[in-house]
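Minutes, project check-in

Agenda point 3 was the complex the collaborators sent over. CS summarized: two entities, 543 residues total, and the question is how they sit relative to each other. Sequences were read into the notes so everyone works from the same version.
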Amino acid sequence: MRRILDTDTAFRWFCKAGAIVGLAVAIALVAVILKESMLALRTAGFSLVFSAEWNPADGSFGAAGALAGTAATTLLALLMAVPLAFAAALFVNAAPPNVAVPVAHALDLLAAIPSVIYGMWGLFVLCPLLQSVLSRFGIEYTGFGLVPSSLVLALMVLPYVSAVMRDVLAQTPVALVESAMGVGCTRWEATWDVVARSRKAGLLGAIMIGLGRALGETMAVLFVCGGVSAIPTGLLDGCTTIAATLANDFAEADGVHKSALFALGGILLAFEFAIQATTIPLIGRRSRK
Amino acid sequence: MQKKKNKIETKRLNFFYGDHQALFDNDLSIEANKITAVIGPSGCGKSTHLRVYNRIFELHRGQRAEGEVFIDGKDILDPGIDLLDLRRRVGMIFQKPTPFPMSVFDNVAYPIRLHFKASQKEIAERVENALRGAALWDEVKDKLRESGQALSGGQQQRLCIARAIAAEPEILLMDEPTSAIDPVGTLKIEELMDRLRERFTIVIVTHNMQQASRISDTTAFFYKGSIVEVGPTKLIFTNPRNKLTEDYVSGRFG
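CS then shared the predicted structure for the full assembly.
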């Protein structure tokens, strides 16, 4: 005879265990990062984020350059990716199925490409291309830095942002679009003034998802950023990001250096957490309606 | 005797959803400054017919209309027609209120800014006029800056009427405008329509036969995509010529 009570109790504990493990790992992760970064926080203190002098050999750990690089590459990437993602989402939602479906699949496929491939493509194709194109205009350029980093990031983020925007826009009530067109709007006016405005929260959520991905992206950027730890001042400057610094330095870091990397990881984690926390209610809103 | 003036003149209108034909040789004349009610059972093509007048059906793939629809003597199915101006001249009210995601004021100001060059002061005047015209001004004059979507259902629908009026149309198409509105709100909208007929030609699709008989001058009865009978509302409801019409208005089917 099957004992319902026994199997259900076991099942309940199995589910609980899954949830508890997830939570425990998250808490342990934060605890380890906090503990490990203490040393750097004590020795370097605020210069960790305010100084751009990153020279582990001399014991200077100012990560302002990596912070600025992260902010700049992310911002530039979103500036390029968001309008494109919006356009692609509109296209896919409006095109006839025989066109829309392949395009949608192609976009989704972009998301499936491992980031290291983007990095290799950046290194072997994009950077040399940028270098040769700019040299034709008499501009000497290494090919590495802000421009290729943000381009690669934009490409990587595009499918995610576009997919969420697609879902968000698809939930627009038909009657709302019809009434906008009904008062004599052009397609664009109806889309921008009425539809986008009515889906504002969801669209913002889509952008936040892109932001979250771009901030933490490591491999692809590591290949093309140039690894320059100074604060970039021009578009053609080399740069680095928090994630790229971590990946680059961890292998040979110890002592304060290692601790400083943990502290940077903590900063990244805090940003990502804040983004998650603001995104969930934005995107969640559409499922409640 | 004064000659009747027809605002809309539909000739042999056929309509298709892909391969499926939904309207068959519709001929219908709609008098200016009158309320014409379009009635008939669900799926008979009433809304489909209405949606040809401002060509809003064109938003949807596979939908197409054949035939002629003259508004003031001009065939609006002619591809060369100015579609944006057509939709300004032919306003539409939908079943569910569709306020735009903006303030009460901006909802009404939006079509004004879209179609007319007007100063801020002029816009404010026109918004007030349109809201008065929709019998909504007194209820919203203190919350013009609040979201249009925060109003009650009935108020939202009158806001949509105000928005349509603001574009200074000649024709108002109403596609079951009160079916999602409570009885008090419905009454207000019906009273409003009675006043609007002085300024506009109104065509209303309705499921509610009492509504049709209360407010309309002319009634057209649709059945399976064809127009069975058109006539003065009183006659259609008391002495229809067609057996189908009689069965429908007396509630025997539908």
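Noted in discussion: Chain A has a mean pLDDT of 92.
Follow-up: revisit at the next meeting once the mutant set is ready.
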